[in-house]
Amino acid sequence: MNENREPLPGAAPASADFRDLTLVEVEQLVANAGERSYRARQILHWVHARAAGSFDEMRDLPASLRNYLKQSFTIGHPVSSFVSRSSDGTRKLLIRLDDAEEIESVIIPTEKRMTLCMSSQVGCAMACEFCATARMGLHRNLTSSEMLSQILAARRELAVGEELTNFVFMGMGEPLANYPRLVRTLAIMTSEWGMGISPRRITVSTVGLVPMMERLLSETPVNLAVSLHATTNELRDRLAPINKRYPLEVLLDACRNLPIKRRSRITFEYVMLAGVNDSIADARRLVKLIGPLRGKVNLIFYNPLPDSPLRTSSRAAVEDFQAILKNGNLTATIRESRGLDIAAACGQLYAEQHIPA
Ligand code: SAH
User: Fold this and answer.
1) Which of 151, 196, 204, 245 keeps 20 to 30 A from 167, CA to CA?
2) Best probe residue, ligand 1, of 117, 131, 302 (max atoms within 8 Å of C-beta)
3) Band of the pLDDT at 212, cuts 50, 70, 90?
4) pLDDT at 281
5) Residue whose CA is closest, atom 17 of ligand 1?
6) Which of 225, 154, 148 is nearest to 186 (CA)?
7) What's the CA gap between 38 and 258, in Å, rounded?
8) Atom of ligand 1 at shortest range from CA of 131
9) Which CATH number fits domain 79-354: 1.20.1600.10, 3.40.190.10, 3.20.20.70, 3.90.1300.10?
10) Most ligand 1 atoms within 8 A of CB, residue of 104, 118, 205 to mutate
11) How far apart are CA 18 and CA 188, in angstroms?
12) Ramachandran quadrant class, 172 (left: phi over 0; alpha: psi -120 to 50; beta: rest)
């Protein structure tokens, strides 16, 4: 037993979360432990398909291997989560992390889908004017296991017969500002040795970190959503200050240079702000900018933040705007607000000191 207490070469630092590991890494571990490589898939199956909470549950593994794994790893689970339910069926989860930071995830049922809106960071550094999470500032990046724990927490909340069908990184944080961990998370979500989720059911939403956006699309087949919100640099600089680093022409150029198949999958998100970005002229400019890309536009009602001078556009204004986009041959949908009564709607996620420490 005692030789097993020494961390073996290649072992992770004490108490790393096993959910962070990819197949290659687990195979390496298994080899270090002197076991055959098929054990790697066996362990990962326990972890992801069977949601095992401990190595002791993995009864078909040799005890020596279980002990070896236990020395260096835990299998993380969200420690506590608090659920609020909206009258429209939306459920918001508040998940407490090991360091007492908190994140929010939202389960959004629609007729055909059960979408999980996932967070990628605690807080956010992107400082978009209309977003509640921006007001927290960036506390820290989430690890992959923390991102994945949102799926586990959500699955626990589902009723019998309910199943998550779609996954969107549109919760707290800028996913592409946490790139290596995001890509690792996506690998675990989509691999057959992991969660086996189809990448077509996953959407990463970005404020437009151009280099990472290009990298993501070359490395993974997930869908991309780009938060655009403005048709001039002057306005976008104000609404989404990252525009000063990656202005509209750079952002759209990057989209234009993607292979057509990828391009046609891009969704441009556009938060409708009364008197700010919702004029007929804005709609026409949007047609010019997006038209050649063959992407889709998703118009989002602004969910007002406390003490914000911004107001949401009227339904009539949103519909007029949509009509111009459609006339310009763009696919344009309107995203209805869900979970407003529990502050679970877009841009309302703000998890700071909800639960006393
Ligand atoms: N950082 C990423 C993902 C998180 S934001 C991004 O910027 O895309 C996810 C979506 O919610 C974005 O399209 C964002 O513009 C939108 N959003 C943020 N605050 C909002 C608000 N107050 N009302 C409506 N939508 C909002």
Assistant:
1) 245
2) 131
3) very high
4) 98
5) 347
6) 148
7) 38
8) 19
9) 3.20.20.70
10) 205
11) 12
12) beta
pLDDT (tens digit per residue) in 298-307: 999 999 988 9
**Catalytic annotation present for 128:** no
pTM: 0.92
Q: Per-residue b/e over 31-56, b at no fewer than 16 CB within 10 Å?
A: eebebeeebbebbbebbbeeebeebe
* pLDDT above 60 for 219: yes
Number of Cβ within a 10 Å radius of residue 235: 17
Average pLDDT over residues 74-98: 86
For a mutational test of ligand 1's pocket, the pick from 147, 251, 271, 308, i.e. the residue with the most ligand atoms closer than 8 A to its C-beta, is: 271
Distance (Å, whole) CA 103 – CA 123: 8
Catalytic residue, chosen from 27, 35, 104, 146, is 104
Report residues whose beta carbon is within 6 angstroms of any ligand 1 atom. 126, 130-131, 170, 174, 205-207, 227, 269, 271, 300, 302-303, 305, 346-347
Q: Where are the domains of the chain?
A: 16-74, 79-354
Q: How many angstroms is it from 290 CA to the middle of ligand 1? A: 19
pLDDT at position 9 is 44
Please report the atom of ligand 1 found closest to the CA of residue 304.
Answer: 22
Structure tokens at 330: 């763009």
Strand partners, 27: none
Least reliable range by pLDDT among 10-19, 37-46, 104-113: 10-19
- CA distances, 135 to each of 33, 63, 65, 196 (Å): 47, 49, 46, 35
Q: What is the rounded radius of gyration, in angstroms, for the C-alpha atoms of the chain?
A: 22
With tokens 């952002």, the residue in question is 251
Q: Ligand 1 mean position to 347 CA, how many Å? A: 5
Architecture of the CATH domain 16-74: Orthogonal Bundle (1.10)
Residue 3 predicted with pLDDT over 80? no
Residue 13 has pLDDT above 60, yes or no: no
Question: Is 219 among the residues known to form the active site?
Answer: no
